[in-house]
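User: Please fill in residues for this 378-position structure.
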């Protein structure tokens, strides 16, 4: 049914045409490592730095892998003719598409689907190398072109990466690869992002939206060229971008009980589906965690699971509007490590409004007027 709907949109040039991709909320690499008692070991071996993907050096030939240290959301795409299917994380904090390939012998690749270019009649290689840096390791590969299918719509001649090496941490991830949704200026090797190719070919309108479910494994989705009012209440609040590289906005302050506890005087924040936590400068995060009653232990902000119902609401004040998060939204309980807040150190002046925030606020990413729309998710 979706395929015929897409075809009808293309034939009739319907302005309201949109493409939906169901997202699955799955067990993360961190969950898998915790189950095996290996999380602390891997954190020591591969120190996690969520700000790696947002350093300017990565915008000129390198990019970061999405954060999968907490929860992850992924969907199915296919590449090639006939199609080969992959699970990918839709990441608004990077711009490249890449998947594992048959040229990769790393352990991470053996546990994931691998693209075989020899089986695709539409594959074209350009032999250009690709190097990707991320918070828990690195990946190398080559670039090629093929037809990419997303949500039932085919995007011909799409450039993407084929991995040749991947970090050990990737072996514990459910998703096979990444589909980046940030601006082209961030793309490694100047590879055109999938969404830009969609818009350029007139397949969808120049915006997309994301809904992340809070509890259910199913129900999350990304809609290319549209939005779904059934997933939010009230009107969208439009916030202009302060930089057209990431989906970066200006945040006014972070308050608890009406008192400013972080981002005093304003700060820059990136809305990023590929980061699980809300990340900020170390001193600001320490202040915020302290204000909500958390104590830091080995990098984690620990709270008493029995106290969550009495913990305060945190307000993120943006463009004159207050976006609030109750304690039930910014805390997470692990079967192995108790309860923690979703506020993490970034070691940078930038904030990242990751999945902890986006689960509470339906988000529209508008390339037409370079803005982000936020509304209370339902």
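Assistant: Residues filled in for all 378 positions:
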């Amino acid at each position: 049914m979706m395929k015929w709907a897409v075809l009808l949109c293309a034939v009739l040039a319907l302005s309201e045409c949109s493409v939906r991709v169901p997202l699955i909320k799955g067990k993360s690499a961190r969950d898998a490592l915790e189950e095996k008692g290996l999380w602390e070991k891997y954190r020591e071996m591969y120190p996690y730095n969520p700000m790696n993907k947002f350093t300017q050096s990565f915008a000129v030939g390198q990019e970061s892998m999405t954060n999968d240290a907490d929860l992850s959301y992924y969907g199915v795409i296919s590449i090639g003719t006939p199609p080969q299917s992959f699970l990918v994380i839709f990441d608004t904090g990077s711009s490249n598409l890449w998947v594992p390939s048959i040229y990769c012998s790393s352990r991470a690749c053996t546990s994931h689907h691998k693209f075989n270019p020899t089986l695709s009649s539409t594959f074209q290689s350009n032999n250009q190398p690709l190097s990707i840096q991320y918070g828990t390791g690195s990946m190398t590969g080559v670039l090629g072109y093929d037809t990419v299918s997303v949500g039932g719509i085919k995007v011909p001649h799409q450039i993407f990466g084929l991995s040749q090496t991947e970090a050990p941490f990737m072996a514990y991830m459910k998703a096979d690869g990444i589909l980046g949704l940030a601006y082209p200026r961030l793309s490694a090797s100047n590879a055109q992002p999938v969404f830009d190719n969609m818009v350029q070919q007139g397949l969808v309108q120049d915006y997309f939206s994301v809904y992340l479910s809070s509890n259910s494994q199913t129900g999350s989705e990304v809609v290319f060229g549209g939005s779904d009012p059934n997933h939010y209440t009230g009107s969208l609040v439009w916030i202009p971008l302060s930089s057209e590289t990431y989906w970066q906005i200006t945040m006014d302050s972070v308050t608890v009980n009406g008192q400013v506890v972080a981002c005093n005087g304003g700060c820059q924040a990136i809305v990023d589906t590929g980061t699980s936590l809300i990340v900020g400068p170390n001193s600001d995060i320490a202040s915020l965690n302290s204000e909500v009653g958390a104590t830091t232990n080995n990098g984690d902000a620990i709270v008493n699971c029995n106290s969550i119902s009495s913990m305060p609401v945190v307000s993120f004040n943006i463009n004159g509007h207050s976006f609030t998060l109750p304690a039930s939204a910014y805390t997470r309980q692990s079967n192995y490590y108790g309860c923690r807040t979703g506020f993490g150190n970034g070691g940078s002046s930038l904030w990242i409004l990751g999945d902890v925030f986006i689960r509470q606020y339906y988000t529209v990413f508008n390339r037409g007027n370079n803005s982000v729309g936020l509304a209370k998710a339902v």
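For context: The longest strand covers residues 137-150.
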